[in-house]
Here is the input.
Amino acid sequence: MVGTIFECIAWLTDQDPEKRYEVKESRKRRSQTQNAYYWAMCNRLARKLRMPTHEVHLNMLRDYGVHEVFSIREDVPISGYIKYYDVIGTGWANGRKFKHVRVYKGSSQMDSAEFSRLIDGMREECELQGIDVATPQEIAAMKFVEPTR
Here is the structure.
């Protein structure tokens, strides 16, 4: 259900009081068109730079994506829990060693605005490498295509 807070409250009053419900903010998601455009540019840039596509994608997340910093015990295998990250330092707390980790939000978890910034960065990187990409007007048109469900 998507609606105002008042619509949600009204809906909840008619539900089973023994059940638990989760409420979260509804955010505009990236479109399939945006996603296809991003990955087409990523593949072209990777070929031009002679790099694996996943490395180009990680570099784009680093430069244009969303991130948070966490401290994780040194003995915890980060890669088993987090896909995109960089260890940026270490520290001690209560006699235990911790790694400070910058964790990048994956593009599939980004909302439309975050993903638009990633696309803009990818376009800039492609243009720097002489790769022909869509015009800003064509990109703007993509930003308003709603995802299908």
In short: The mean pLDDT is 86. Residues 31 and 145 are 6 Å apart (CA to CA). The chain is about 40% helix and 15% strand.
